[in-house]
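Hi there. Long-time user, first ticket. I'm pasting a complex I've been working with (about 226 residues overall). I'd like to know whether the download I got is complete or cut off, because the file seemed smaller than I expected. Thanks.
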Amino acid sequence: QVQLVQSGAEVKKPGASIKVSCKASGYTFNTYGISWVRQAPGQGLEWVGWISPYNGDTNYAQKLQGRVTMTTDTSASTAYMELRSLTSDDTAVYYCARKRGSGWVDSWGQGTLVAVSS
Amino acid sequence: EIVLTQSPGTLSLSPGERATLSCRASQSVTNNYLAWYQQKPGQAPRLLIYGASSRATGIPDSFSGSGSGTDFTLTISRLEPEDFAVYYCQQYGSSPWTFGHGTKVEIK
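Hi, the file is complete. Here it is re-exported in full:
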């Protein structure tokens, strides 16, 4: 069965960087994109961006352009999301999810809590 | 960007009742690329519907999606206890992909 397993929770200080990993299993990793979605405490879902493991194409949310980088390691079936210059507004649970077709996602990781606090 | 407005914010219903959730887009959603997700507390979202009306694998037929252009609806024909949750719509026809703010379906 499809599984996406994410790295553990982290606490960071303002200005720091975070890199969240997402290891996929149960399907051919190169076949589907990986989307990243975040959810601030008590809030709704916010799309962060997506990456194609096949060719490395990316598409990032404009508000995070310049601070976010998504990469993949196809040999390890793992996707990564790096976010730099963290502020308290970046405190959220970050989810990776398998992208299907034109953009819906059908399988989700368990989420990674990133807390930014001085 | 396309803004998705979900209504109502909260829907209070009893098990066995029908739920009708609305998602209205600020502009037409390309190719009706609209998905619905269910999220329970402490859990990741779960895909219910994609392409406005296609049910995802394993989703019971009590869930149905309809609509086109700017107006979309998720209908739960008969609420089961496990259906009480928050529901989000998402459009993926235009970048940036966007989500609605959610409709909470709570037990009356």
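A couple of notes from our side: The radius of gyration of chain A is 13 Å. The CA atoms of residues 17 and 84 of chain A lie 4 Å apart.
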